[in-house]
Amino acid sequence: MTALLSIQNLTHCFGGLKAVSEFSYEVPEGVIYGLIGPNGSGKTTCFNLITGIYTPTAGKILFNGEEINGLKPFRIVHKGIARTFQNLRIFNNLTVIDNIRVARHFTMKSGIFQTFLRLPSFREEEAKVREEALGLISLMNLSHRATELAKNLPYGELRRLEIARALATKPKLILLDEPAAGMNPKETEDLMKLILRVRDEFKVTIFLIEHHMKFVTGICERVKVIDFGTTIAEGRPEDVVKEPKVLEAYLGRKAVVC
Amino acid sequence: MGTLKKMKLVLAALTFYAVVQVLNLAGILNGYFMVIINRSLIAVIFAVSLNLINGITGQFSLGHMGFAAVGAYVSGTLTTLFFHLNLNHPFDNLGFLAAILLGGLMASLAGFLIGFPSLRLKGDYLAIVTLGFGEIIRTILNNISYVGGPRGLLGIPKFSNFTVIFLFALATIVLIRNLVQSSIGRSMLSIRENELASELVGVDTTRYKVLGFVVGAFFAGIGGGLLAHLLQIAHPTQYGFYASALILIMVYVGGIGSLTGSIIAAFSLTFLTEGLRVGIDWLRDTVGVPIGTEWTMVIYAVLLILIMLFKTEGLMGMREAKILIIKEKEG
Ligand SMILES: Nc1ncnc2c1ncn2[C@@H]1O[C@H](COP(=O)(O)OP(=O)(O)OP(=O)(O)O)[C@@H](O)[C@H]1O
Ligand SMILES: [Mg+2]
User: Fold this and answer.
1) Is residue B188 within 8 Å of residue B208, measured between CB atoms?
2) Which residues of B sit within 8 Å Cβ distance of A?
3) B330 falls within a domain
4) Has residue A258 got a pLDDT over 60?
5) DSSP, res A149
């Protein structure tokens, strides 16, 4: 069986800087895989390449066996890849439920005339999407916030909202860019449970970037470590973190390790 | 009861209509006053439709009245030059309506033609292109002698009246409100909020930006047609940068993204413009201060600066009046 996501020799340059170099990875369906590496090692750039924000300088990205590099980002979402952002990108002046409903839009059929006239077919579709959105909101423990403007939510809830919004696109693969960033140990623990639950309930494959080692070893089946855009290790997280190259990459860069 | 609640907006509008009509028939509102009310309602059409582009979709158009010009000249040419429609023929009213709608459609075509290539541009560049568009339309009209050139298109029959303008303004508000509070509208809003995130939840952002322009231009074209058939003239200077800027100021004063704000600002600023005009005429003719009507723009510039300093969000911010919000079922 071919992998759900197959990345082959991906390279990306920003001017003279090679941010990602010869990156390859096979992500099978149903797994939770990780991507780790020191700051500035090219992890987010990888996600940006997969989601079509950048077009790779070289290499190929196959999703379900189909080449997706070069497609516009929204088309890649339609194919079944969703993501969250390292620095939140929330629709601040929309309510929580509207943040989520936007992500259902591309599956909806009502055209402009049904919308102008609020025809029965339009209302039915809107009602259905509203129900689905409320379902996701409740799964993410955000029911008390449904009609609140997103900008009024605390940080931890915004992180969950972004995951809910990504799930609303009904993805086969979800990319999480540092989902536990800025969370305390308790929140991180809850997030791990939530991600496992999401994987099982939505039958979605998860590929994530994370700095929290406990988090990575806790839920990732395999990880890949990159440094300066180049792969330096791959395998089970508990093995990988012991590799000298990995230790060196992390220690060499960050003088203070807690 | 339930349906009555849903009809609140229409009820409020009809009350407004009835009050104005009664005052008019009773002779309390004279013809001059009715003209200002009609102009306010047309300004509502312009401001609400520009808000769809600038406020809801988050683009920046500086040439909105260029679309109005297309509507004015297309409908005016049809009723006046092509078909010589006459107020005394009852069927000609239908011809007038058809001409207004056709004017709107041609304006939306213009919206598509300028939107499609230029919406890949961002911010300032888009502003410059739309500004250029408005000026090009004005220059073209100035040079087509068939539609009167710099003299303007004269002798347009006065088909627009309070009832017709009121109905079109109400329709504009209801339809754009329905659009904004829908899945399509939320996609447009998401572009304003964060274009990259919008694209990454599957929104074809270019398509919805163009749609914003097309719909906004359509209603601007309708407004232009109504204006031409109210004033009985379409003149290039009515649709230049000055006019577009005035609508833009209405949208900002009312609150970018608030249809309610645009409606309030359209009325207030239309009345203010008229008041200033009267005041300036008085100062010049009676008191002898040598100033002209161009000073209204100076006063608006000051108003805009004050808004930017003290109430950045405009009167309403992004809020809507309750009667403009479509209630969703609880549950
Ligand atoms: N748009 C861009 N233009 C130029 N250089 C960029 C751009 N985006 C990222 N870079 C550079 O590419 C390198 C990789 O950045 P990237 O954001 O992918 O790192 P990262 O692994 O996600 O780091 P972090 O852990 O801090 O999030 C960095 O040196 C960064 O400065
Ligand atoms: Mg990063």
Assistant:
1) yes
2) 175, 178-179, 182-187, 189-190, 193-194, 196-205, 211, 215, 257, 318, 328-329
3) no
4) no
5) B
Structure tokens at A167: 């799930």
Contact A102 B203 (CB under 8 A): yes
Pick from B246, B261, B260: which is nearest to B301 by CA?
A: B246
The predicted pLDDT at position B88 comes to 81
Helix then strand count (H, E) for chain A reads 10, 10
CA B220 to chain centre: 5
Supply the ipTM of this predicted assembly: 0.94
C-alpha distances (whole Å) from B225 to each of B92, B131, B266 are: 15, 21, 18
Q: Could you tell me how many CB contacts below 8 A there are between chain A and chain B?
A: 103
What tokens does A97 get? 């439920």
- A14-42 per-position pLDDT tens digit: 988 999 999 999 999 999 999 999 999 99
Closest atom of ligand 1 to A20 CA is 14
Q: Which amino acid is at A190?
A: D
A44 lines ligand 1 (CB under 6 A): yes
Is residue A225 in contact with ligand 1, taking CB distance under 6 Å? no
Which residues in chain A are closer than 8 Å to B196, comparing Cβ atoms?
53, 73, 89
List, as one string, the DSSP characters of B286-322. Answer: II-----TTHHHHHHHHHHHHHHHH-TTTTTTT---G
Q: Is the Cβ pair A102, B200 closer than 8 Å? A: no
What pTM, to 2 d.p., does this model score?
0.94
**Number of domains within chain B:** 1
Return the CATH number at B132.
Answer: 1.10.3470
Tokens representing B99 are: 């001409």
Q: Which chain A residues are within 8 Å of B183, Cβ to Cβ?
A: 101-102, 104-105, 108, 110, 115, 125-126, 129
- Domain membership of residue B244 as a residue range: 3-324
What's the pLDDT score for residue A254? 46
Cα of B77 vs its chain's centroid, Å: 21
Smallest CA-to-CA distance from B314 within B271, B243, B251 is with B251
To probe the interface with A, which of B9, B182, B325 has the most A CB atoms within 10 Å?
B182
Whether B309 is covered by a domain: the verdict is yes
Within a domain: residue B66?
Answer: yes
Other beta carbons less than 10 A from residue A107's beta carbon: 15
Assess whether the C-beta atom of A38 lies below 6 angstroms from ligand 1. Answer: no
Query: What six digits make up the tokens of A171?
Result: 């993805």
Burial (CB < 10 A; 0-12, 13-18, 19+), residue A225, is: buried
Domain annotation covers residue B329: no
What are A102's two structure tokens?
């936007």
CA distance B225 to B236: 14
Q: How confident is the model at residue A252 (pLDDT cuts 50, 70, 90)?
A: low
